[in-house]
Amino acid sequence: MSAPATTRLMRQWLRRGSQASITPTITRQLHPQAAAATIRRVVPQIVLSQPRWLSISHAARAGIMPESEDPKPPNDEVMAPGNQQPAQLSEDEYQELSDVQMDLICEKAEAMQESREDVEVEYSAGVLNIVFPPNGTYVINKQPPNKQIWLSSPISGPKRYDWVVSGESMHQKEGGGQGEWVYLRDGTRLNALLSKELGLAIDHIEEDMTPSKDATE
């Protein structure tokens, strides 16, 4: 084979080898670019769809359950005691009513003392002391200047009771209703408290006297 023919064959072989080596390189370079372009087109759609879905879901929860964001305040209303007023008593009326009340309490306490050796009762000069385990010592005394009966309880604390008449009506004479010693601040009745804390059952006092309109009379 002549030299020119050999040279031509070598050139053809080199061109074919160069084309064969370049083509895969170009192909390998194009495939990642196409894949990257495909990922860029798909990924933004997925990322953008998530915030839209979350924002709609939050709005739905707020609309369905508004109490979770703005709850109603609790009802802390407390029942107030009734509109009770102390009766206008003269000095004699107060002494009579308070003596009856103190005697009733003392009588019931002494009856309880007979059945319980740990109970002690002492009544002197208008002051009644009742030692009642396990509660403690109760002190009940008259207060003529205020026309009240005072109680010191180891459980409920100190209270001042006024004479209150209930049940008066147009068919009854003035002052002819049922009277009780009542703590006006909270409506507590003396007899009810003694029944609850000491177990003393004391009857109501029926007032048949007509209290004077002026407490100084």
UniProtKB/TrEMBL annotation:
Catalytic activity of the protein: 4 Fe(2+) + O2 + 4 H(+) = 4 Fe(3+) + 2 H2O
Report the domain of life of the source organism.
Eukaryota
Can you provide one Gene Ontology molecular function annotated for this UniProt record?
ferroxidase activity
Among its keywords, does the record have Calcium? Answer: no
Tell whether tRNA processing is among the UniProt keywords. no
One GO-annotated biological process of the protein: iron ion transport
What GO cellular component term, any one, is given? mitochondrion
Task: Provide the protein's localization.
Answer: Mitochondrion
Disordered as annotated region, ranges: 66-85
Q: Which PROSITE patterns match?
A: FRATAXIN_1, FRATAXIN_2
> Any idea which UniProt keywords this protein has?
Ion transport, Iron, Iron storage, Iron transport, Mitochondrion, Oxidoreductase, Transit peptide, Transport
Please give the InterPro entries that the UniProt record associates with this protein. Frataxin, Frataxin/CyaY, Frataxin/CyaY_sf, Frataxin_CS
**EC number(s) stated in the UniProt entry for this protein:** 1.16.3.1
Q: If you read the UniProt record, what top EC class would you report for this enzyme, in one word?
A: oxidoreductase
**NCBIfam families named in the record:** FeS_CyaY, mito_frataxin
Name the protein family. Belongs to the frataxin family.
**Protein's name according to its UniProt entry:** ferroxidase
Q: Which organism is it from?
A: Sphaerulina musiva (strain SO2202) (Poplar stem canker fungus)
From the broadest rank down, the organism's phylogenetic lineage runs:
Eukaryota, Fungi, Dikarya, Ascomycota, Pezizomycotina
